[in-house]
């Protein structure tokens, strides 16, 4: 005789009620709203390109070195190679957790970020070169991969690497059988479906898409995609404004407007 | 790690063929290779072939005391190995097996099978806090001719559906596990069968360029493509997982084309899987509830294989430049020891080796493994299986402890 | 969802490099055509595509999109995007300061802060004593006497080859090994291309403004460097770093502006690096520049 | 066993299948000096007065040059002098290209080793280019060297009519070495492959380059060739007929 089945799938560990009656989520957002984003470019002086990115309580720092001479032996003679390293600070989440360099989660995230930018960066412009992307998660409140992708995109733009388009990521959770854009760590429990989508905003193409665990039959995959693209478009507006402001700031201080 | 060297003209040729909708091996763009599944004599041993891509999976089920925090849930873990025989770069990379593309395959399969709740871990609980079932699926990619992702996924699901766990009676706090031959073994609680379809992506990298998707790419297409996307659907048409790790940005339209194609492909695959399961359980030798004696039937099966090999090795017409290298078959008494060893239901690759021998395109296999390695493999297996069967007696039906411990240490 | 007004950041540890991050420049310079990767550039039909842009054929004919964040500059038919920040792009005739990384057969591999190492061929350097002859086996053997790994060398870009590699030469008395001085690294865009790159600053400091962002400071007179001269070199170095962090064009005039302002404000050399001091100095220098 | 004037009596008839370790010939002791020179090819080793096979395959004996070797069927190519092979350019080092020739090591092709190439006017091959060339140096302990100069031909490489040089378009089919040698010797198979005009270049290292007008015909040809390697003659002819009839639909 198996133990009594647990109360419904969406109940969550502490039986918390995720979406209040008037449709507000735990942190007061609507189900289509993305968390508040604050980011800045060129925060590190040593890196070729760097960006600090904050989405709600998730804080990420990205640095780009390159394009430069390849350090290892594996390089392509006709195009650049992209290498990525993803590390989470020990103090990032509530419990102090020591992560080793090669542990599963960070290598998986690093591979996604690397493959993502291999599709967007114009690699043919830098033959036999290497572009290194380093992402450091400072504070983790869910959606670290999304924040990492957006931060790496800003850092690459800051480094002046040729890219065919921005890459903007957004994730969608599924709580109390409604889709919620940009779930925080509370809403993205382990046994709930979550879709992480990265798109190129101008052409609307899909760069990377990861859906974890089965969608219930009524929730269709297409509507999840629409939520994610809408969220990504919101984030893109903020990124573009930030880059515009940063570029104009540089031009203004350099004083040479018409080059 | 340098992939197989593919020349520019081969690459361009592959892409032209795809544009003309007739692929390098004659298939249409949305046509997959025929999957053939053969479920091995032991429970939970599945062998899947997509033409030349060949994966072997095996499931072991074990009763363990659960970890305190998840006391009432069983566990399922999947490990995917790229065996050095798969392809030349794989052989060279035997030291560090975690090449980029390979880690992606493993993570992807794990998320498709485990996170999509295909096997209900709560139903794997024998007695909360005391005993739960731990299911371990090991997949080996024997020969990689492109798209080993779908082959592994199909192998994992086939192996899970075919696996059996010993029956168990719980009286109060005390748990009694019956041996496999005492009580009819029980299948695993598989709720739905997610099966994956992988597409190769082709197209220029620029923002507004059109892009094409190709179902089930072969090795040359995989090398010529710039990215891949995998969809997992079950036969009810529910999406169980999507993985696109980057590479070529894809139009929304072709993304939807892929998901529809993947849905229909999954239905077809499930039908093949069901057929294979049906005839596997019919002629399964171990299903009879008789004590484990030397069973005459396997010897007959081996003799049948022997005669088939003679037929193939008959002198072919001089025109066929490739004579079958008739390596002398191992002498009869060595075969005897093998059959006795086989009585113990442990999944040893040795059956796999013989099964390869009498596949219809036997040359195909000999060719890929190469005569020298093939001899080495057979000899190595003979020595190992002899030492194992002679040193420890024919213990209880479940996998003998020594080998399980040894497998555990090798695992960590 | 209106764009987030970027209030002065509350986080203190990660202050963005640019101190004045208020939105004021956005309104003042809104007329400047700024793009970022992927945004479409309006083009007439006869325009010719150049660096920093990408031509792709969309549904409605081909579309020109930018590949970097920068200023769209149109020179009659030519449309290109000038990136604001990128690694040094060598041009023939540039004066650069390079560091020897490796000695390969008959050439020195030099790091010039570019995407690839530049090569200084053995045949393109002046042999000691200015002797002129063909390089033979023996020269090749004692290449390490001329320059060894880690040495700083001032050189000129001789040519850019088809496959992107860059050749340098030190075929004039101005160029050669640099010693007894300090190297300051800045962003290469800030160093304007000028006729003269070797400057004698009024405060007695000799500077080589490398186009690739490597600036070498040394003493004009030969002989031992006095304590006072070391302090002056340090002050020049700090003022160059101040200009770099404020992203102000670096030339002998702007360096001297910051140098004088820091002296006038009585700022000690050692605390010239703190961010707010840097900001006040640069604002002072700019106002002085506009006043003059 | 026939006594040959060549001072060696064969233990087996040439053309039979021979296995590693079997005795192929007996040289007799070195006492009766002044014998004809015996040339040993690939797959044969000498053990005191006997010649043993070291590879499995067909035993071949060429009376005119008194040469004995074992023709075996493997996929890994061992460079031999004057072999026409197809190489893929991997990289460029200084004055040479490094070619992958499906062998144990890469081969080098000098940039000037083209028909009528000079320092200024020479072909510029990128990585991944396909080159049809001839082995000019093959020794066990050194890298093989290949060249695209055909002795006795005066055409220049840029004209495109030379036999050796870069191969453009079409595709490459990987077959076993035995099959490639057979195709080179008598091209009965090539004629039967398909009734479509096509160009082909056979490399002894198991690579065959074929190029028909459109890519569908090339694909069908490559399929037929791949299957020719593994199927028996009658099965294969039937397969080819069926292949071409399908494509007509």
From TrEMBL, chain A:
The entry's protein name is Exosome complex component RRP41
Could you tell me which InterPro entries the record lists for this protein?
ExoRNase_PH_dom1 (IPR001247), ExoRNase_PH_dom2 (IPR015847), ExoRNase_PH_dom2_sf (IPR036345), PNPase/RNase_PH_dom_sf (IPR027408), Ribosomal_Su5_D2-typ_SF (IPR020568), RNase_PH (IPR050080)
Pfam families in alphabetical order: RNase_PH, RNase_PH_C
Q: Where is the Exoribonuclease phosphorolytic domain?
A: 33-161, 165-230
Identify one Gene Ontology CC term for this UniProt entry: nucleolus
Write out the similarity annotation.
Belongs to the RNase PH family.
Tell me a Gene Ontology molecular-function term this record carries.
RNA binding
What keywords would UniProt list here?
Cytoplasm, Exosome
* Location within or outside the cell: Cytoplasm; Nucleus, Nucleolus
Q: Which GO terms describe its biological process?
A: nuclear mRNA surveillance; poly(A)-dependent snoRNA 3'-end processing; rRNA catabolic process; U4 snRNA 3'-end processing
Whose protein is this, by species? Answer: Gracilariopsis chorda
Automatic annotation (TrEMBL), chain B:
Cellular compartments per GO CC = cytoplasmic exosome (RNase complex); nuclear exosome (RNase complex)
| Localization per record | Cytoplasm; Nucleus
Q: Which UniProt keywords apply?
A: Cytoplasm, Nucleus, RNA-binding
Q: Which BP terms from GO are recorded? A: exonucleolytic trimming to generate mature 3'-end of 5.8S rRNA from tricistronic rRNA transcript (SSU-rRNA, 5.8S rRNA, LSU-rRNA); nuclear mRNA surveillance; nuclear polyadenylation-dependent rRNA catabolic process; rRNA catabolic process; TRAMP-dependent tRNA surveillance pathway; U1 snRNA 3'-end processing; U4 snRNA 3'-end processing; U5 snRNA 3'-end processing
Exoribonuclease phosphorolytic domain sequence ranges? 32-166, 192-262
Composition skew (Basic residues), residue ranges: 401-412
Q: What is this protein called?
A: Exosome complex component rrp45
From TrEMBL, chain C:
Per the record, the GO terms for biological process are: CUT catabolic process; exonucleolytic trimming to generate mature 3'-end of 5.8S rRNA from tricistronic rRNA transcript (SSU-rRNA, 5.8S rRNA, LSU-rRNA); nuclear polyadenylation-dependent rRNA catabolic process; poly(A)-dependent snoRNA 3'-end processing; TRAMP-dependent tRNA surveillance pathway; U4 snRNA 3'-end processing
Q: Which residues form the S1 motif domain?
A: 93-171
Its main subcellular localisation, reduced to a broad class, is nucleus
By its UniProt entry, which CDD domains does this protein fall under? KH-I_Rrp4_eukar (cd22525), S1_Rrp4 (cd05789)
* Pfam families, sorted: KH_6 (PF15985), S1_RRP4 (PF21266)
Q: Which GO terms describe its molecular function?
A: RNA binding
Return the SUPFAM superfamilies for the record: Eukaryotic type KH-domain (KH-domain type I), Nucleic acid-binding proteins
One GO cellular component assignment for this chain's record is: cytoplasmic exosome (RNase complex)
The domain of life is Eukaryota
Report the Gene3D superfamilies cross-referenced here: 2.40.50.100, Nucleic acid-binding proteins
Which residues does UniProt call coiled coil? Answer: none
Q: Any idea what this protein is called? A: Exosome complex component RRP4
Q: Which organism is it from?
A: Gracilariopsis chorda
Automatic annotation (TrEMBL), chain D:
Of the GO CC terms on this record, one is: nucleolus
Which intervals hold domain K Homology?
170-213
Query: InterPro entries under this entry?
Result: Exosome_RNA_bind1/RRP40/RRP4, KH_dom_type_1, KH_dom_type_1_sf, NA-bd_OB-fold, RRP40_KH-I, Rrp40_N_euk, Rrp40_S1
Query: Where does the UniProt annotation locate this protein?
Result: Cytoplasm; Nucleus, Nucleolus
> Entry's CDD domains?
KH-I_Rrp40, S1_Rrp40
Domain Exosome complex exonuclease Rrp40 N-terminal positions? 38-76
Superkingdom of origin organism: Eukaryota
What keywords sit in the KW lines?
A: Cytoplasm, Exosome, Nucleus, RNA-binding, rRNA processing
- Keyword Manganese attached: no
Entry's family note = Belongs to the RRP40 family.
Q: What is this protein called?
A: Ribosomal RNA-processing protein 40
Annotated organism of origin: Gracilariopsis chorda
């Amino acid at each position: 005789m198996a133990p009594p089945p647990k109360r419904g799938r969406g109940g969550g560990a502490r039986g918390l009620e995720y979406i209040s009656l008037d449709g507000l989520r735990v942190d007061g957002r609507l189900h289509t709203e993305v968390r508040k984003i604050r980011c800045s470019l060129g925060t590190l002086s040593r890196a070729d390109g760097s960006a600090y990115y904050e989405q709600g309580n998730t804080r990420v720092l990205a640095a780009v070195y390159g394009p430069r001479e390849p350090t290892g032996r594996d390089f392509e003679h006709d195009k650049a190679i992209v290498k990525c390293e993803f590390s989470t600070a020990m103090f990032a989440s509530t419990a102090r957790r020591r992560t080793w360099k090669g542990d599963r989660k960070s290598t998986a995230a690093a591979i996604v970020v690397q493959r993502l930018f291999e599709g967007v960066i114009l690699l043919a412009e830098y033959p036999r070169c290497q572009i290194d992307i380093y992402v450091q998660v400072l504070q983790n409140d869910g959606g670290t991969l999304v924040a990492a992708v957006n931060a790496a995109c800003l850092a690459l733009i800051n480094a002046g690497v040729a890219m065919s388009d921005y890459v903007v990521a957004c994730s969608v959770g599924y709580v109390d059988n409604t889709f919620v854009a940009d779930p925080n760590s509370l809403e993205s429990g382990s046994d709930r479906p979550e879709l992480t989508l990265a798109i190129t905003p101008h052409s609307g193409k899909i760069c990377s898409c990861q859906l974890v665990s089965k969608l219930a039959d009524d929730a269709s995959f297409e509507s999840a995609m629409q939520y994610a693209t809408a969220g990504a478009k919101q984030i893109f507006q903020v990124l573009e404004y930030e880059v515009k402001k940063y570029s104009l700031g540089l031009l203004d201080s350099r004083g040479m407007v018409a080059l | 790690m340098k992939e197989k060297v593919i020349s520019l003209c081969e690459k361009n040729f592959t892409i032209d063929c795809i544009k003309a909708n007739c692929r390098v091996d004659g298939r249409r763009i949305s046509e997959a290779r025929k999957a053939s599944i053969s479920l091995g004599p032991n429970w939970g041993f599945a062998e899947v072939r997509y033409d030349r891509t060949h994966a072997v999976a095996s499931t072991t089920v074990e009763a363990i005391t659960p970890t305190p925090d998840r006391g009432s849930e069983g566990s399922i873990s999947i490990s995917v190995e790229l065996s050095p025989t798969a392809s030349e770069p794989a052989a060279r990379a035997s030291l560090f097996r975690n090449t980029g593309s390979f880690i992606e395959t493993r993570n992807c399969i794990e998320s498709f099978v485990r996170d999509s709740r295909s096997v209900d871990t709560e139903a794997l609980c024998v007695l909360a806090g005391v005993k739960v079932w731990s299911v371990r699926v090991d997949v080996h990619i024997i020969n990689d001719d492109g798209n080993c992702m779908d082959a592994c996924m199909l192998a994992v699901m086939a192996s899970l559906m075919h696996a059996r766990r010993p029956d168990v009676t719980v009286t109060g706090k005390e748990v009694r596990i019956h041996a496999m031959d005492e009580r009819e073994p029980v299948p695993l609680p598989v709720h739905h069968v997610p099966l994956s379809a992988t597409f190769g992506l082709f197209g220029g990298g620029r923002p507004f360029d059109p892009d094409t998707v190709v179902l089930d790419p072969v090795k040359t297409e995989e090398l010529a493509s710039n990215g891949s996307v995998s969809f997992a659907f079950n036969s009810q048409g529910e999406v169980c997982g999507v993985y696109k790790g980057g590479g070529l940005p894809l139009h929304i339209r072709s993304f939807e084309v892929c998901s529809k194609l993947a849905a229909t492909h999954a239905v077809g695959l499930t039908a093949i899987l069901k057929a294979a399961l049906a005839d596997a359980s019919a002629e399964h030798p171990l299903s009879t509830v008789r004590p484990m004696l030397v069973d005459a039937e396997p010897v007959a099966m081996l003799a049948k294989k022997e005669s088939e090999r003679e037929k193939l090795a008959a002198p072919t017409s001089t025109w066929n430049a490739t004579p079958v290298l008739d390596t002398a078959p191992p002498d009869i008494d060595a075969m005897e020891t093998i059959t006795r060893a086989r009585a113990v239901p442990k999944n040893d690759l040795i059956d796999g080796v013989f099964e390869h021998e009498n596949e219809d395109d036997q040359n195909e296999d000999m060719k890929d493994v190469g005569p020298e390695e093939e001899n080495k493999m057979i000899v190595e297996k003979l020595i190992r299986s002899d030492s194992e069967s002679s040193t420890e007696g024919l213990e209880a039906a479940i996998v003998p402890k020594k080998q399980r411990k040894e497998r555990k240490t090798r695992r960590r | 969802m209106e764009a987030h007004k970027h209030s002065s950041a509350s986080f203190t540890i990660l202050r963005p490099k640019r101190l004045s991050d208020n939105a004021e420049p956005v309104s003042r310079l809104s007329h400047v055509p700024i793009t970022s990767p992927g945004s479409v550039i309006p083009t007439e039909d006869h325009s010719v595509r150049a660096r920093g842009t990408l031509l792709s054929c969309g549904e409605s004919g081909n579309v020109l999109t930018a590949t970097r964040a920068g200023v769209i500059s149109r020179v009659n038919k030519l449309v290109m995007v000038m990136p604001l920040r990128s690694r040094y792009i060598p041009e023939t005739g540039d004066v650069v300061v390079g560091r020897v990384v490796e000695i390969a057969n008959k050439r020195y591999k030099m790091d010039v802060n570019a995407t690839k190492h530049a090569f200084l061929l053995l045949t393109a350097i002046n042999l000691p004593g200015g002797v002129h002859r063909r390089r033979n086996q023996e020269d090749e053997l004692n290449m390490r006497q001329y320059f060894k790994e880690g040495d700083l060398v001032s050189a000129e870009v001789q040519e850019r080859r088809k496959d992107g590699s860059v050749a340098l030469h030190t075929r004039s008395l101005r160029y050669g090994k640099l010693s007894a001085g300090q190297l300051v690294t800045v962003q290469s865009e800030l160093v304007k291309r000028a006729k003269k790159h070797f400057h004698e600053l009024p405060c007695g400091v000799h500077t080589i403004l490398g186009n690739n962002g490597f600036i070498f400071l040394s003493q004009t007179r030969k002989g031992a460097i006095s304590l006072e001269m070391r302090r002056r070199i340090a002050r020049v170095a700090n003022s160059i770093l101040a200009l770099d962090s404020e992203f102000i064009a670096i030339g002998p005039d702007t360096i001297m502006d910051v140098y004088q302002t820091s002296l006038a404000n009585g700022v000690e050399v050692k605390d010239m690096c703190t961010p707010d001091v840097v900001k006040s100095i640069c604002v002072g220098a700019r106002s002085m520049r506009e006043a003059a | 066993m026939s006594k040959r004037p060549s001072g060696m009596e064969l233990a087996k008839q040439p053309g039979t299948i021979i296995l590693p370790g079997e005795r192929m010939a007996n040289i007799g002791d070195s006492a009766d000096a002044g014998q004809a020179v015996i040339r040993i090819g690939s797959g044969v080793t000498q053990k005191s007065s006997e010649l043993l096979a070291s590879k499995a395959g067909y035993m071949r004996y060429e009376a005119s040059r008194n040469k004995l070797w074992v023709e075996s069927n493997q996929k890994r190519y061992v460079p031999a002098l004057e072999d026409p092979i197809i190489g893929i350019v991997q990289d460029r080092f200084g004055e040479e290209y490094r070619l992958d020739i499906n062998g144990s090591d890469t081969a080098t092709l000098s940039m000037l080793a083209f028909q009528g190439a000079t320092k200024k006017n020479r072909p510029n091959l990128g990585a991944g280019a396909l080159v049809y060339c001839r082995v000019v140096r093959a020794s066990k302990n050194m890298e093989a060297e290949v060249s695209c100069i055909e002795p006795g031909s005066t055409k220049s490489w840029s004209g495109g009519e030379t036999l050796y040089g870069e191969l453009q378009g079409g595709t490459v089919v990987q077959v076993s070495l035995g099959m490639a040698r057979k195709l080179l010797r008598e091209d009965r198979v090539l004629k039967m492959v398909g009734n479509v005009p096509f160009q082909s270049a056979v490399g002894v290292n198991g690579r065959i380059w074929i190029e028909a007008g459109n890519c569908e015909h090339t694909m069908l040809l490559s399929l037929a060739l791949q299957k020719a390697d593994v199927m028996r003659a009658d099965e294969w002819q039937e397969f080819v007929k069926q292949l071409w009839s399908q494509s007509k639909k």
